[in-house]
Amino acid sequence: MGIDMPRAPLDQSQMAATLSHYWRVSVVDLTTSTQADLAEKINTGDAHSGDVIVANFQSAGRGRLDRTFTAPASTALLFSLYLTPQRSRTQWGFLPLLAGISVAETLNTVNAGITIKWPNDLLINEKKVGGIISTIHGDGVVIGIGINVSMSDQELPVENATSLGLAGVSLLDRNLLLSKILNSLETDFVRWDLGGSFVDRYLDLSATITRHVRIELPGGREILAKAISIDEQGQLNLDDGQIVSVGDVIHLR
Predict the structure, then answer these.
(1) Which domains does the chain have, with CATH numbers?
(2) What is the rounded CA–CA span in Å between residue 172 and residue 233?
């Protein structure tokens, strides 16, 4: 079943009117990847903490574990941001989870019903509506975020996916969604960077903790266990004592 949903263009001036001064947003109509664009700015010394690039369309968007991420033009909120934490690098692994908290809690204020599959897949009723990746560049971290906003059934990238529109969310203006998410993330990032713990808030949103899971690790090895918690580094703690920092989680019934 398809539905007709609004696809308002990205408007840099509209975003600026509702954003805090911490963020500097650049809007591009077409790019290969906002993640790659921001990495290039960092490599040339032209990037600062709080820089954001948001695109109407990415021709070579990338998800976790080097998967591709594609969406029809103007149907998804696709952006990358740069942060330069003062907190110890040993805890930078929590940053994509922190971004997941900010995104989920923001979307849940408009009744999205978001939960998070570790580490940072955004789910609605166990269907993926978005995802977050991060890479260390220079003195900071580039965080890439993709959210399916107004995709119809026919436009979804995979079968087990959904969009905010299909889930019945009424706020589909990507300009307003981006401003709300970034303003929330600024508040959370400042608190985290000063030493605050967000583990409990992540656990409240988690669709993974207390579940039996199969974890596919890089290199092909698999783990079957029960997820019991996460730590301040963003790692998944299992009931058999193993701690996982990178892997693909499958929830088991």
Answers:
(1) 12-203 (3.30.930.10), 209-251 (2.30.30)
(2) 33
C-alpha 137/C-alpha 80 separation (Å) is 13
The residue type of 85 is P
Q: Which amino acid does the sequence have at 34?
A: T
Tokens in use for 62?
């990338």
**Which amino acid, residue 237?**
N
Please, which residues have CB within 8 angstroms of residue 9's CB and are 6 or more apart in sequence? Answer: 56, 74
Backbone angles phi, psi at 125, to 5 degrees: 50, 45
C-beta neighbour count of 174 within 10 angstroms = 26
Query: Exposed (0-12), middle (13-18) or buried (19+): which is 229, by Cβ within 10 Å?
Result: middle
pLDDT in tens, 183-205: 999 999 999 999 999 999 999 99
Per residue in 2-16, pLDDT tens? 444 567 789 988 898
